[in-house]
Structures are given as structure tokens and as C-alpha cells.
Amino acid sequence: MSSPEIASLSWGRMTVKGCSTAYKDCKVWPGGSRTWDWRETGTDHFPGVQPADVEEVVQKGAKTLVIGRGMSEALQVPSSTVDYLKKHGIDVRVLQTEAAVKEYNALALQGVKVGGVFHSTC
């Protein structure tokens, strides 16, 4: 399965090609996407993205994971999350969300099994 293209990004809104749902924050992986609900793992801007936030994307087959920290990079990514990904052999890229979406789409276009978690506001 290929990773779906992120079709659009604006403040507070993202769309994924082939999906009728618009997301505020989203998770994408080879073959799918869904809302990233921070309440599931107790995530907040600080301490930031938890290993539990990315575990699902890894389990769904992503070999590279792109993390979008928000438009103003307010969302933190602790070293424990990066370490978790590296321990599982995942190439991780942490970027401002607009740059993260460009990186994700470029990797998806190349056929990389890429996944991501993206925060579309601050």
C-alpha cells in the first residue's frame, strides 16, 4: 500500500487525498489516515508528541515518520519519542508543519512507506 498524499493544509485544516474527512490534526500511514486526537494519549504542546502518539503509525507499516510540530512549532517532540522511533528502525523527521507536509508528500511520491503525525495550528 502506498502512503496517501496530503492534499491541502491551512491553519486548523488538513485534507488527505482519497478521504472525505477534513482534519485539524491527523495521522497518516501507508494505506490510510485518521484524526489525531490528543486526548487519547494525554498529549499537549508540552511535553509534546508521545511514543503512544506514533506507535499506531509504526504498527501500520511506516518506515519513515514525519512529525509536523505546528505552524509556529509550538508542539514539542521529546527525545524519548525520537529514541522510541529509532529503536524500532524508523527514520524520523521533525519539522514545522508546512515543511513537514512537503517532506511527507515528496517521500510518498517516491514510494517510501512514510507515515506522519501533523499538528495544523500553533
TrEMBL record:
Taxonomically, the superkingdom here is Eukaryota
Q: Known Gene3D superfamilies for this protein?
A: MTH938-like
Q: Which InterPro entries does the annotation name?
A: AAMDC, MTH938-like_sf, NDUFAF3/AAMDC
Q: Which Pfam families match?
A: DUF498
Name under which the protein is recorded: Mth938 domain-containing protein
